[in-house]
Input
Amino acid sequence: MLGYRPIQCHKCGMKQKVTSATRIRVGLLSVVPTFILIWYFFGWQINTLQLPIILIIAIPLITAALLTLFMPFMARYIAYD
Output
């Protein structure tokens, strides 16, 4: 998959790869909160909040972008030869 290539340490030369659990966690943490916000704004709140359409679209996208920035810090790697 793209983005899940092994990483090699420049100092010791050890290769590391992302665990399967991290792949699932990254997928869920990038999709689920975004869908929840989209459901919240396009669901029952769209009539009561009266937000501009640009905010209704921008808030879930900004949330997804911010969550994506923290994904490398939540990743787990395992060493292999």
Notes: The longest helix spans residues 20-42. The chain has one domain: 7-80. The CA atoms of residues 34 and 63 lie 7 Å apart.
